[in-house]
Amino acid sequence: MKLRKVAALLLASIMVISLVGCGDSNKTNSSSDAAATSSPTSSESSGTTSSGSDNTATEPTALEGKLVVWTLASDLQQFSDYFMEKNPGVEVETVVIAPADYPTKVQSALLGGEKEPDIIVGEPQMLEDMYDAGFFEDLNQAPYNAQDYSDKIVDYVWEVGQDDSGIQRAISYQITPAGFYYRRDIAQTVFGTDDPTEVGKLFADYSTIIQTGETLKAAGYKIFASDAETGYFSGDSAWVVDGVLNVDQARYDYMDLCVALYQNDLTAFASQWAAPWYQAMSGPVPLLTAETQWGTDSMNIWDADSFAAATEGTDTVEVFAYGLPAWGVLVMRDNVGDTAGKWGVCSGPSYGFGGGTYIGISSNSERKDLAWEYLKFCTLTEDTMEWWIATSQGDTVSYIPTLEAHADDANEVYGGEQLYKFWLEQAEGIDYSKVTRYDKAIGDAWGAAITSIKTGEKTKDEAVSEFYDVVESTYPEITVNR
Amino acid sequence: MRKAGENRKKRNVNKMGYLFVVPFAVTFLIFSVYPVFRTLFLSFTDFKGFGDPNFVGADNYTRVVGDKFFWRALGNTIRIWSVNIILQLGLAFLLTIVFSDMKYRLRGLGIYRAVYYLPNIIAATSVAFLFKTLLDWRYGSVNQILASVGINATDPVNWLGNSSVAPYVISVIGAWMWFGNSFILLMAGVQGIPSDYFEAAAIDGAGRWKVFRKITIPLLRPILLYVGITSLIGGLQMFDLPFLISGGTAGNPSGKLQTVIMYLYKFGFEIGTHQVGYAAAIAYTLFAIILIVSVVQYRLMREKED
Amino acid sequence: MELKIKKTILYLLLFILALTCILPFVLMMVNSTRSGIEIMTSFSFIPGHALEDNWTTVFGYFNLFRGFFNSLLVAVPATLLTAYFSAITAYALAVYHFRGGKALFLIIVVFMMIPGQLSLLGFYNLIAKLKLIDSYIPLIIPAIAAPGIVFFLRQYLLSVLSKSLLEAARIDGAGELHIFHRIVFPIMMPGVATMSIGAFIGNWNSYLVPLILLNSPEKFTLPVMIASLNSSTDITSNQGAIYLAVAISVIPILVVFAFCSKYIISSISAGAVKE
Q: How many CB atoms lie within 10 A of CB A207?
């Protein structure tokens, strides 16, 4: 009887002890790690953002009141803090909600007639539904007159913020065009150049990418960590045109590319966003391959150091490139480790973009004037953009005057590349008219078809036919011509 | 069951039953029955999650019946669940027998019961993350260990990426997660059986198997019925684990991990595919299937009793 | 001798099984002491040195203790309500013969079969009409009706309660409520305790309903707070913080488990309470 109680308590105490124990050891040698790992973005959300810029901006009239912001990106938390700093009379309550549940939360509140939140946001793939539901205030009407600002924001971002009838509903502070982040040292070794324009030619189209991959393989490298890296450049046409499913040749070419990358052993077979994928950013990763014979008896796989020692020099590969949007700079910053300073960025086979937080005013809000001030502050104010560039350490804003002011900034971490100019060029190439509300679901189904082909579970015909079936059953309103 | 109403007093006593179930019944009506009927109403509309619902009759239901992906999802669910339930209940039963065996008198039941329950405590997200890491094709510890002892070294198994392996991997992980819970339930049931039964059997010199079959199982029948029906309901409503491990409602590889609730989720909650009316129809079709199977199961378990 | 060998083998097997159940737990705690980058790039059971950073990160986002307190405020009353009202309902359904009793039992079982995910929409609607958004009441009161637990306890009573005991009590002139509180409830205790653990875990980990119903950040429960860590742009650096928050959030579950274990554990030879 006693024994059992003791057992359960024991479990609890094991945990407490381990926490306390680690706490102690932590105190003695935390300094080095702490500096390296606490990221500026997260620590600054607690309200220590004042260091970045001076409070020189003068507000014409002191703003007062309360605002409620519901966001799915914690960035906006920092914007709110900065807004409050500039406008001491305003209290902004920022609620960060996990992206997967954000639409459900906003939907139930707004459909239920809630007056708060005042500010809501959306990512591109959610926006169309949110526009249809009438959640966002029309920003073209007085007193907002958002159309007056249309030349201040990068075109495609402006368009993402518009509903079907061209009414402005939301604005984003960032641009998210995609490119390839590549290792300059490997480019130099294998291709004899690390110039972004020259390296860009290695990714000029799908068949060139395969060739580049083969060359890298012969030299002992892998072109990508996962085979999802080309996803942002996966097609240059709309999935649905006039209610008809549109699968053009480029889609098949992209399919062939993915299959070739996989079957010819050109990637490191990591899963995107999984641990090995991040690990490959910082250097060689141990890869279990067909040729590998593994390990020694003394290998202790539970211990990272001994594991690394045991596998060192046996079969590790280095990865050449990652396909990521502009915010990939932040991912890189946190994960490149020893390879910091060895990276460059070049363009991909087509223009693409990924993500982005679009801010709008809830149509139920009773504090729309103040909300508009907040929206302007976050997206259309030069001072805020300067502050965000400094604070985020590399995010790319959508405000054209700021982008132009920084166009000649050389990014030393990326070998002196003019990243802002580069991203602006990429963003200008994006044709948003090719984006439809069906893209996510259809793109995922196409991706699933590719996966079944490359692993040999289905033939190309079977997989494509199944793809058609999925689209048909998901969207009865779309005509599928096989 | 004894016949009710042997005398007046007894009948009055039985009236107390109403009083005792009132709080439950009222709360249940307000907070469970009402929302369910609202969903039922939605299943006859084209409600997309916003805007006004338009009545479309039984359209959503004819669509479900004709949707091959719904039936595939049902097949997937049954495949994952049946292997899972055999392992889970099998293990729980084995443990119950071992721990209730008078001969062994194993000690530490409390400790083991607590430890076996641990996987239930950990959130499914953590469990999924752990197994995805351990079972990673080219980087996971499992394949690295197998390779280091010379198994599969040349062609590592893609545990979660091979569509003929992945469903059973989910079954095993599920069994690991939930066997502790089943064990506790069965054990609670066994402990509720008065010990005089076992003592009497011991005096009669009944063998272990005979005691189990003649005493434990019959007296456990009500609990077994509960475990059977709830595992069926829970199993056919399986969602978290396959959803998190396959990383989306599509249930890849090759859609083999897509359960019915994942398919429902795709239309009920996922961005870009919001068709709440259709999702509701999927929910009620699944309900009808569970109901039919449960009735059959209940009949079978009752008949054995007689 | 043979028995001893068998026992040793059994213990060994039980131990191995126990080990597999503990490992993820240990991993979770170890990861709460490692930095996000360490977690994302390597797999280890050796504690790291980032506990303090993770702590700072967690508290930089929200006050974890506040969430802890809020969760207790919801989970404890909800669990108590579930335990008591499920027990009394199950008792009524198992013992009394009254018109509609069987039907109610059937309805309970049938309702368990309806996938609950979509009821959320109707539930929100109802709560909005009752003007109870952003309140704990809709998180606590519905706990009175827990069909699954009533079902289990009814079945449990059928297998452990002897009716002669009740007859005897009635002959002694005990009131029905008194009989339930003094005689039946103690007999049900192992079942109630078992179910309470599950109910508490369910309430404690409940995420979607509180997320949808609560609007003020200061009212958020622990899982709602933890989920917002996940939505940060630098997910990598937050991994350790997430593990720390999750590890801390498990403590009350262990405490409840320790507490309830006292009741579910009665050794096999002692049998059920019969006196």
A: 13
Place of tokens 């953590």: B126
Please name which of A39, B127, A343, A469 lies closest in space to residue C205, comparing C-alpha atoms.
B127
Per-residue pLDDT reduced to its tens digit, A299-351: 444 444 544 444 444 467 889 999 999 888 888 887 888 888 889 999 988 88
- List the structure tokens of B46: 């084209």
Residues on chain A touching C48 (C-beta within 8 angstroms): 22, 33
Are the Cβ atoms of A276 and B68 closer than 8 angstroms? Answer: no
- Complex ipTM > 0.90: no
Nearest to C269 by CA among B175, A53, B190, B276: B190
DSSP A36-95: HHS-HHHHHTTT-GGGSS-S----SS---EEEEEEESSTHHHHHHHHHHHH-TTEEEEEE
Is the CB of residue B110 less than 8 Å from the CB of residue A2?
Answer: no
Report all structural domains of chain A as residue ranges with CATH numbers, in order of start.
Answer: 55-176+354-433 (3.40.190.10), 178-353+435-474 (3.40.190.10)
Question: What is the pLDDT, as a whole number, of residue C41?
Answer: 63
Q: Which residues of B touch C121 (CB under 8 A)?
A: 35, 38-39, 42, 276
**pLDDT digits 0-9 by tens, B128-143:** 877 887 888 877 777 7
Could you check whether the bond before residue A117 is cis, i.e. omega within 30 degrees of 0?
yes
Distance (Å) from the C-alpha of residue C159 to the closest C-alpha of chain B?
6
B252-268 mean pLDDT: 89
| Shortest Cα–Cα distance, C218 to chain B (Å) | 23
d(CA B236, CA C223): 26
- Whether residues C231 and A327 touch (CB distance < 8 A) is answered with no
Protein fold of B67-305:
MetI-like fold (1.10.3720)
> Residue A47 — pLDDT band, cuts 50, 70, 90?
very low
Chain B contact set for A104 (CB, 8 A): 269
- Rounded Cα gap, residues A53 and B36, in angstroms: 54
Under an 8 A CB cutoff, do A7 and B161 touch? Answer: no
pLDDT tens per residue, range A349-398: 888 888 889 999 998 888 888 899 899 899 888 888 888 888 887 788 88
How far, in Å, CA of A105 to CA of A120, rounded? 11
- Calculate mean pLDDT across residues B271-292: 89
Closest alpha carbon to C144 in C90, C185, C66, C107: C90
> How many Cβ atoms from other residues are within 10 Å of residue C164's Cβ?
8
Domains defined for chain C, CATH in brackets: 62-264 (1.10.3720.10)
- Cβ-proximal residues to C40 (8 Å cutoff; 6+ apart), any chain: A275, A278, A279, A335, C236, C239
Task: State yes or no: pLDDT of A1 exceeds 60.
Answer: no
Which residue among B35, B118, B226 places its CB closest to the CB of C119? B35
- Mean pLDDT is lowest, of A17-21, C20-24, C105-109, for A17-21
